[in-house]
């Protein structure tokens, strides 16, 4: 990752929470600790943040604390071809008329390109997904209510009496921070609370994760493997991870990334 991009991510991160640690920034940027420490030192000298022991803080701490995890604008640039191929397989599971939930995320966002000619009832907590489908499809869109989290481009509500409880879905499509033997993992308690409500409204849970997510971990478990009906990933999945899903009774779909690239090229030429 280029230095300017790392600096942008670091400055964004310190505006989201009072103090950001070096390990957190290493995870956000996929850089080494030495690189992050140099970046923090440089930004400190430039008076763009304040260096503190073990991390950095904003010169003017935020009044509103955001969610843990990478911003949407950073995540959407990672493993793009894999995400597009995975999203194409997810939409292939749907039939016109189906009520579905699409949880906000960069992999699930790629579904919008394949939903253009569909007619379904879509419930989402993502402004990006709702806006694109409203402009470029004839699907019926319902958007959840709550607090807007700009960095992740999602709307979350901690309350039980929101519109979520009034929507039934045949399937819910979602990504995750990580996926392992204990199940789906997320980075923020509020995400866990809001997403568990959505999961309760769907018959089937379909998880969209590129193969790198099998190597990522978080301290927060969203749900166990037994709750997941299907996992869609790319061919980078290791045999041990495929075996883990099979043992838990989870269906596995491996997306053809090359086919996704051909689709993308065809769309660009049209």
UniProtKB/TrEMBL annotation:
PANTHER family in the record: HTH-TYPE TRANSCRIPTIONAL REGULATOR SRLR-RELATED, HTH-TYPE TRANSCRIPTIONAL REGULATOR ULAR
GO function terms (MF aspect): DNA binding
Species name: Shinella pollutisoli
Domain HTH deoR-type: 3-58
Signal peptide: none
SUPFAM superfamilies in alphabetical order: NagB/RpiA/CoA transferase-like, Winged helix' DNA-binding domain
Annotated protein name in UniProt: DeoR/GlpR family DNA-binding transcription regulator
Keywords, ordered alphabetically: DNA-binding, Transcription, Transcription regulation
């Amino acid at each position: 990752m280029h230095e300017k991009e790392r600096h942008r991510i670091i400055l964004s991160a310190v505006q989201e929470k009072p103090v950001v640690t070096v390990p957190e920034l290493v995870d956000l940027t996929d850089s080494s600790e030495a690189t992050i420490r140099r970046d923090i030192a440089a930004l400190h000298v430039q008076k763009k943040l304040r260096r503190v022991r073990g991390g950095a803080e904003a010169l003017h701490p935020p009044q509103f604390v955001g969610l843990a995890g990478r911003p949407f604008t950073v995540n959407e640039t990672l493993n793009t071809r894999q995400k597009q191929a995975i999203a194409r397989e997810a939409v292939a599971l749907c039939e016109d008329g189906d009520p579905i939930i699409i949880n906000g995320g960069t992999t699930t966002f790629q579904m919008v390109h394949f939903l253009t000619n569909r007619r379904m009832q879509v419930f989402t907590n993502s402004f990006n997904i709702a806006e694109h489908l409203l402009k470029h499809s004839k699907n019926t869109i319902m958007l959840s209510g709550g607090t807007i989290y700009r960095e992740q481009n999602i709307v979350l509500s901690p309350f039980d009496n929101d519109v979520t409880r009034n929507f039934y879905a045949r399937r819910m499509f979602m990504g995750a921070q990580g996926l392992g033997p204990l199940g789906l993992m997320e980075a923020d308690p509020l995400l866990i609370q809001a997403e568990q409500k959505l999961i309760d409204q769907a018959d089937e849970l379909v998880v969209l994760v590129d193969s790198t997510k099998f190597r990522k971990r978080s301290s927060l478990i969203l749900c166990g493997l037994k709750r997941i009906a299907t996992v869609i990933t790319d061919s980078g999945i290791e045999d041990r991870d495929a075996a883990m899903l099979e043992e838990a009774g989870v269906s596995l779909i491996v997306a053809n990334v090359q086919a996704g690239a051909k689709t993308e090229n065809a769309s660009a030429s049209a």
